[in-house]
Amino acid sequence: KSTATVVGEIVAGARGFWTGFQQGIYNDRRRTLSDRCLNQQVRDEVYFVIDFVSGGASFDNILKFITTVSGIINDNVYFCGYEDAIKLIKDKCDDGTSCEPAQIGKNVQEKLFQLISDLNGIMAALQDFPSSDLVDLEDQTTTMGKSIGKSLRTLFNL
């Protein structure tokens, strides 16, 4: 596979996973990502960075390299909502008991069937993973992300 194909697959997979994760952890299947999160532009920029680092792009592009890397970081930290998901769990854990092993164990016991169902969702998505079709790949990773998000929601009783 070409580098561009692999980068496209990674970005599509990451976008699907993060979409599903947010849907699962927030229990909202309508939740979508910002158009600036893990989009086509990011794919092109990641490809440029890889090309530059591997020596495929001229050293004259150093300024473009620096601005591209900072743009990727800025757009994906700011527009993808990573901090919100971390804050959701952190705020729950700040109560002093929700993240204690005993409480998590209790949540597992009380919601074992839900957790098994979430695990089955991951296993089903993995059966034909990774798909060579980008849309199917994104669907697979959305399913995985959603199941993992739901599992965290269950474990921490969010």
Feature tags:
single chain; 158 residues; mainly alpha; 0% strand
Could you name the ranges where pLDDT drops below 50 across 5 or more consecutive residues?
none
Order of helices and strands: HHHHHHH
Q: Roughly what is the average pLDDT, rounded to an integer?
A: 89
| Number of helices, counting only DSSP H or I runs of 4 residues or more | 7
- Biggest pleated sheet: none
Could you say which structural class the secondary elements and strand pairing correspond to? mainly alpha
Strand content: under 5%
Shape summary: globular
Number of strands: 0
* Radius of gyration based on Cα positions: 18 Å
The helicity comes to over 70%
The termini sit apart by 41 Å
Description:
This protein is mostly helical and about 160 residues long. Helix content is about 70%, strand content about 0%. The chain has seven helices and no strands. The chain has helices at about 5-25, 40-55, 60-80, 80-95, 100-110, 110-125, 135-155. α6 (about 110-125) runs antiparallel to α7. The model has no long low-confidence stretch (mean pLDDT about 90).
